[in-house]
What does this fold into?
Amino acid sequence: MAESIGGVSATASPIANSSGSVTNQAIQVLQGPYITNTYGGGISCQGPTLNITPFVTGSASASKPYEPFYNDPVYDMRDLNEDGSLDNPGDILYYVPTRTGQKDNYNLSLGFSATWSKPLDRKLQDQCKEAAAANIALMQQASANKRLDFEIARLKNCGELMKAGIYFHPQSQYSKICADVVVTNPGGVTPQHRHNIPTSTKAEDLGGVVAN
It folds into this structure.
């Protein structure tokens, strides 16, 4: 109702154009669990963890078809007879090569992300390491005891069989089982004692027994 008041045009015709392009790229770092070492007997110790994540990102943008320039027409705007009208309206005199400014865009990013995680309670870590060392020593001692039991059983069985005259053939692949077993006095009889009897040719010894 107010557009023609007083003979003044009050028509509003605002024009707004907006265009844009946004590309978001992000690198996600996934935090892994602590490295856990298990030593048996329910003993597990967690140590510091370093996570390194390399990444490569890239992007490319291009317009198709690619046109480095275009021909901008120049129209005939001449009025040779000066009658206020164009003599050759719509006629093109020539073309002007005009660069479009079109170009391809490429982006490449290289890098890595790293996180360092470490338990805060050092005392618990030290206790876990001590428990692990004690458990390892216990397992080594148990293994040594079993080895000793095996060697004693091998010595006993090989000795008893050798006393009974039973043994592997020397060319048998199993003869080395008892190869280092030595049996002394297999019959159970003490070795015979021998003494040298001195000899004499004196006259007082003739009445006795002369041993040769």
Observations:
- Helices lie at 122-163.
- The first helix runs from residue 122 to 163.
- Confidence is low (pLDDT under 50) at residues 208-212.
- The beta strands are 35-40, 43-47, 49-61, 69-75, 92-99, 105-117.
